[in-house]
């Protein structure tokens, strides 16, 4: 199970967007990020390694605790996370890679982590295990 993109969506995509004076759109930066990860997935596929891709969780409302010079508002991060998942899911579908959509299970109407699934200001809690276990059982026959 490969989990990637959360830190890109939380920090790096918007940072690169602003750092480069908005030369590249958010969507272009998301697509570049997914393309880079796609190279790794392609290599795993070539090696006939069974894998799945775990989509990122919704954004959290936490502010710029990292003190980055360019840090998106919670609302912008919410949009980035949603778009990243949408594009990652599409990419996986086109390539025939299994994609676990955790986002839709734990997102509120504003694109943030539902409180009942929040462990802290950023991470999901162990209630998410239910969805993961069900998905793994359905897709791979893994009963945990």
Provide a descriptive summary of the structure in words.
The protein has one domain (2-140): SGNH hydrolase (Rossmann fold, 3-Layer(aba) Sandwich), CATH 3.40.50. 51% of the residues lie in helices and 6% in strands. It contains 5 helices and 3 strands, in the order βααβαβαα. It has helices at residues 6-19, 26-46, 74-95, 103-106, 129-140, and strands at residues 2-3, 52-54, 98-100. The protein has a 3-stranded parallel β-sheet with strand order 1-2-3, sandwiched between helices.
Question: In brief, what are we looking at here?
Answer:
The chain contains 5 helices and 3 strands. The chain is mainly alpha-helical and 144 residues long.
Strand content: 5-15%
CATH topology label: Rossmann fold
CATH architecture: 3-Layer(aba) Sandwich
Number of contiguous helices = 5
For the sheet with most strands, the description reads: 3 strands, parallel
Helix amount, in percent? 40-55%
Under CATH at level 1, the class stands as Alpha Beta
Following the backbone from N to C, one meets helices and strands in this order, namely EHHEHEHH
What number of domains?
1
Task: State the distance separating the first and last CA atoms.
Answer: 15 Å
How big is the Rg? 16 Å
**Total beta strands:** 3
Classified in CATH, the superfamily is SGNH hydrolase
């Amino acid at each position: 199970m490969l989990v990637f993109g959360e830190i890109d969506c939380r920090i790096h995509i918007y940072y690169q967007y602003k750092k480069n004076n908005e030369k590249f759109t958010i969507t272009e930066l998301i697509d570049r990020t997914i393309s880079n990860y796609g190279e790794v997935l392609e290599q795993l596929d070539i090696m006939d390694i069974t894998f799945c891709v775990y989509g990122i969780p919704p954004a959290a409302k936490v502010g710029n605790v990292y003190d980055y010079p360019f840090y998106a508002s919670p609302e912008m991060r919410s949009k980035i996370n949603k778009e990243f998942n949408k594009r990652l899911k599409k990419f996986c579908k086109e390539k025939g890679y299994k994609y676990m959509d955790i986002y839709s299970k734990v997102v509120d109407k504003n694109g943030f982590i539902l409180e009942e699934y929040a462990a802290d200001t950023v991470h999901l809690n162990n209630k998410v295990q239910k969805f993961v276990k069900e998905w793994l059982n359905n897709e791979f026959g893994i009963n945990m």
